[in-house]
Design a protein that fits this description.
Blueprint (H helix, E strand, L loop, with lengths): L6 E12 L2 E13 L4 E5 L6 H8 L7 E6 L2 E2 L5 H11 E5 L10 H11 L4 H14 L15 H14 L4 E5 L7 H18 L3 E5 L2 H6 L2 E6 L2 E7 L16
């Protein structure tokens, strides 16, 4: 097995221009994530966690430094190469679900695989199993407006891992659901991580997500402030782990 991190930041800066002001979202960020990890990036608003997620997701480019996915430098890729990387190697779970309203749960979940040209029989087998895994068996023909918010997020989770991406990026995935639904979603994602080996990286300030994460990377002012790997079976709360002050 390769020891190359699945995600690696080396000296990454990201500067945004807001009028006459330059905002430094990331300031020399160094971070490595190994395949199969279940990691939460967390910190106060403006700490750089969403910016970091966008760079991993090939939705943005660094101002300087290196961002690699599976050993490939994202900053030097063409738009076409980045588009292919997003389609084939990255799964996305957004807080707003981002499902296609006119498609059924099944069609939404298979959409990335369809873009990849995966045969219909293979798509059906995998998606039906995933919908069952996320607790939506029997709901595959429902459209988003016929599903609750938590059910829509389950479809989004199934879609995110259906194509066997290298990494699943979850941006505040529990922000728009109640506590009970959040717990169910996190249980599902933790099981998918364990059963399928899917690598999850969260951007969050939700203590519930941090309880489930196996590694807590605290960001402050665009740098890693704390990096805590939990002991197996530990249930660290943010207030009991070392964390950004």
């Amino acid at each position: 097995m390769s020891n190359t991190p699945i995600v690696q930041f080396q000296g990454v800066t990201r500067v945004f221009q807001q009028g006459d002001i330059q905002v430094q979202a990331l300031r020399g960020l160094d971070l490595a994530v190994q395949s199969g990890e279940f990691v939460a990036l967390w910190g106060p608003s403006g700490s750089g966690k969403t910016t970091a997620l966008n760079l991993i997701g090939a939705l943005d480019r660094p101002t300087s430094g290196s961002v690699k996915l599976e050993g490939k430098e994202l900053g030097t890729m063409s738009r076409r190469e980045l588009s292919a990387m997003r389609r084939d190697r990255i799964g996305f779970v957004f807080q707003a679900y981002n499902l296609i309203p006119v498609l059924t749960a099944f069609e939404n979940a298979e959409s990335v695989m369809a873009l990849q040209g995966t045969p219909a029989s293979e798509r059906r087998s995998r998606v039906m199993q995933l919908l069952e895994d996320v607790g939506l068996k029997g709901m595959e023909n429902r459209r988003p407006h016929e599903l609750s918010g938590g059910q829509q997020q389950r479809v989004a989770i199934a879609r995110a891992i259906a194509s066997n991406p290298a990494v699943v990026l979850a941006d505040e995935p529990t922000a728009n659901v109640d506590s009970e639904t959040a717990e169910k979603l996190l249980t599902i994602m933790a099981k998918l991580n364990a059963d399928h080996g899917a690598t999850f990286i969260f951007s969050t300030h939700d203590p519930r997500v941090m309880r489930y994460a196996k590694r807590l990377v605290g960001l402050v002012d665009g740098r890693v402030h704390t990096d805590v790997v939990k002991e197996q079976g530990a249930d660290h709360h943010p207030e009991t782990a070392a964390h950004p002050a």
